[in-house]
TrEMBL record:
This is AAA family ATPase. Residues 1-13 have a biased composition (Pro residues). Residues 27-39 have a biased composition (Low complexity). Signal peptide: none annotated. It comes from Streptomyces tendae.
Length: 241
């Protein structure tokens, strides 16, 4: 005669917790192995790739200063390449009067056009160079590129005016004599040309970033091998009924 066997507990009942470490859920080790051998059971991510915000701001400040300094070269080229506006001085009623020698000439428009074309070329070039040096981009870098272009345009404008003919046209007319043609001072009539550098730089940089910039990897639609438990074990780590 044998003793009766103890019936197994119902499937819905599990033994109560008696203390000690709680075993990890099924598949936790597999997930950790698939994620590069990390022992973090909660899947905490490490530090993100790329420079921090402080480093990006520092790089953006250096970029803005470097771009603005090239405004000196733009100012020299504008002074050299811009057409001269001819003026003539005359004496009327014992007073000097200065007027345009060619009232229908388009030299003044050419001065603004020269500055605008040079600024567009400098903007496109700066956008390409910044993209090649900093492919990761970022909002601080884009803001610095636009601000540097504006500062460079302001520097070029003031430097060209300073290098050009004298601003006091009456004194200049007296120096050269009555009826003698002389050049008018450089003047930027269309102040909107100061934005040409920034606009060209931003358009070129954003276009290159969209076409050739680094892209985030697409998520894998299929789970890695061993990520989910398989086999006879159930969802609670016990044997399936």
């Amino acid at each position: 005669m044998t003793a009766p066997l103890t019936p197994p507990p119902p499937p819905n009942e599990r033994p109560s917790y008696q203390g000690g470490p709680v075993p990890p859920p099924a598949g936790a080790h597999a997930v950790g192995a698939a994620s590069g051998g990390s022992h973090d059971p909660y899947g905490t991510h490490g530090e993100q790739d790329g420079p921090g915000m402080l480093t990006e701001v520092r790089q953006a400040a250096v970029t803005a200063v470097a771009v603005a300094l090239f405004g000196g070269l733009l100012g020299v080229l504008w002074w050299k390449l811009a057409p001269s506006v001819p003026l003539v001085g005359e004496v009327v009623n014992d007073s000097w009067v200065v007027y345009l020698k060619d009232s229908e000439g388009e030299q003044a428009i050419g001065v603004d056009g020269t500055f605008t074309l040079l600024a567009l070329a400098f903007g496109a070039l700066s956008g390409v160079v910044v993209f090649l040096l900093r492919r990761r981009g970022g909002v601080p870098l884009v803001v610095a590129l636009g601000a540097g272009g504006l500062l460079g345009s302001l520097l070029a404008w003031r430097l060209g005016v300073w290098l050009g003919p004298a601003q006091d046209v009456i004194a200049h007319a007296k120096d050269v004599g009555k009826g003698v043609t002389f050049s008018a001072p450089l003047k930027l009539g269309a102040k909107g040309a100061l934005l040409a550098w920034s606009l060209a730089a931003l358009v070129v940089h954003l276009g290159l970033t969209g076409l050739f910039g680094p892209r985030d990897p697409e998520p894998d639609p299929w789970p890695a091998p061993g990520q989910y438990p398989s086999g006879p074990s159930g969802p609670y780590g016990g044997k399936s009924v």
